[in-house]
Amino acid sequence: MSSIARLAPRQRAWFTDLPVLLVAVVWGFSYLVTKGITTSHTVVAVLLLRFAAVLPALAVAGRHKLRALDAAQWRAAGLLGLVLAGIFLVETYGVVRTSATNAGLIISLTMILTPLAEAAVTRVRPPLTFLAAAALSVAGVALLTQGGGVTRPSAGDLLMLVAALGHTVHVLLMARIKSMRGADSLSLTTIQLGSAVAVFALIAVVPGTGPTPWAVAAGFGVLDWAGLLFLSVLCTLFAFYVQMWSVRRTSPSRVSLLLGTEPLWAAAVGIAIGGERLGAVGVLGAVLVLGGTGWGRRAVNPPAPRPARPSRPKVSVAAAVTAGASRDPVTAQRS
Known about the structure:
The chain is an all-alpha fold. Helices cover 76% and strands 0% of the residues.
């Protein structure tokens, strides 16, 4: 029997939830780390270094399933990689030009924008409670970007909003491209990252786009390299592996709920470590964003009703053994 299966139910929950929560924490740190090692002139070079560092490991880990993909799946994943490259570029430029707190909170609007976009595509009206939550989140972003007073949103705030829209488009494309359905997640992600790295490499050789990745790498100090490895290993490789591992053992809804704490960590890190200040208006906006996204997530994915306790009819020993095996949490989640 698996070591996970031998744990008590509460212990199993902590065993599977804690790594996902750690992913939310490292993603919350990622905005401040990105600001620390990136400038507006080195965005392309840092992105190339970050993803090129983990791409070989992903390719080796999924080399057998990569060969099983057909031409249509390769083309679709490559196209999505181009979209992903654009998202990373916009998002990183946005992080550099705004606060880590604003970046983490604004990007969390993806959780609201995606169901709205899906409803528009499928022409299925979302619940009124979700629309109310979306309005609350939008109002929160409007207040958040004002900081200590009524000012125009910064260029970084607007770029983060564009990045949130880009993530929404990316998710919808992944869901609606038929050739992507049923394909191995690791293989598709590897191709997408490979396509994005190719885009960054092409941009990096264009004159006037900033220093080369080699020049940036040569100028990195110990703390810069630590930050880059943090983004590459923990925020990319570790985060992807944990998501795949946890979804197979719990559920996408539970994983999404835990990852939804990312903006909380981004705000906490930005304020406690980065020395950022929101002001009264910004604090109110942050509260509205967090409340709206949390409310909206529950409106779209309401908790399943607790099943009524069944009666205990007499069963044979063989039937009892079979029923007990079917409740194995590890086996059940792998189906």
